[in-house]
Amino acid sequence: MRVPSALTIAGSDSGGGAGIQADLKTFAAHGVHGLSAIAALTAQHTRGVTAVEIPPPDFLQAQIDACFDDFRITAVKLGMLGTGTVIDTVADALATRDVPVVVDPVMVATSGARLLAEEALVAMRTRLLPRADLLTPNLPEAELLLGHPIGSLDGMRAACNDLLALGAHAILLKGGHLADGADTVIDLLADARGIVELPHPRLRIEAHGTGCTLASSVAARLALGHPLREACEVAGDYVHRALAGGYRPGRGDVRVLDHF
Ligand code: PLP
Predict the structure, then answer these.
(1) Which of 107, 137, 186, 248 could disulfide-pair with 116, CB 3.0 to 4.6 Å?
(2) What residues does the Pyridoxamine kinase/Phosphomethylpyrimidine kinase domain cover (predicted)?
(3) What does the pLDDT read at residue 61?
């Protein structure tokens, strides 16, 4: 029996809270076999990122090829890619693969550390967005991709349409950063058929790796064959539960998600 596999192409977080480590825990929690191709290495703990290293493009390519040569990959998740060269390598590797791709456009960590070189924004716009079956930006990431601020729900709707126009097939725009003090967070799911609101109660808890976990959770559900909207709803519930159980594993104040 060849069980469905999901592949994450992303950055490693030595602290185990975000990136590849969060993705693999999430895949396991959804009952999907997890594969990984490490696009960037970070040295980090609960107080920040202390070093970043990008492996050679040939080695990234070899990891991706090894995964596709052997496993039944039914969804791919992209996270921290670091540079324009890495984005080009990944976009080339996926160009001929018929598999849904969830793109988490990782740019800056909550701690403020840059996880994507400034020069790579153009490559993200022109090479990754058109390959995204689903793009999962938070508001700061959508603002950087579009080059203007988004300050309201109407602004979020317009941003979804602008991101669709850049080539992404669907957008899950996360509303958590909207400074409206409301007890409900509204995420928007947009595709060619329209925009639906996905509301959920606001948990006044912040945790490292939330964006990675949401995107890999959607990818896991797609890997199991679920339709996009259902995958996004189930993923939202999963992140909510994982946040509610968040814990502090290190000496810093940062919480990580509970995948147990
Ligand atoms: N480190 C890696 C490798 C990541 O992929 C990410 C986010 O995607 C982060 C750190 C930042 O996580 P957060 O912004 O949740 O702290």
Answers:
(1) 107
(2) 13-254
(3) 98
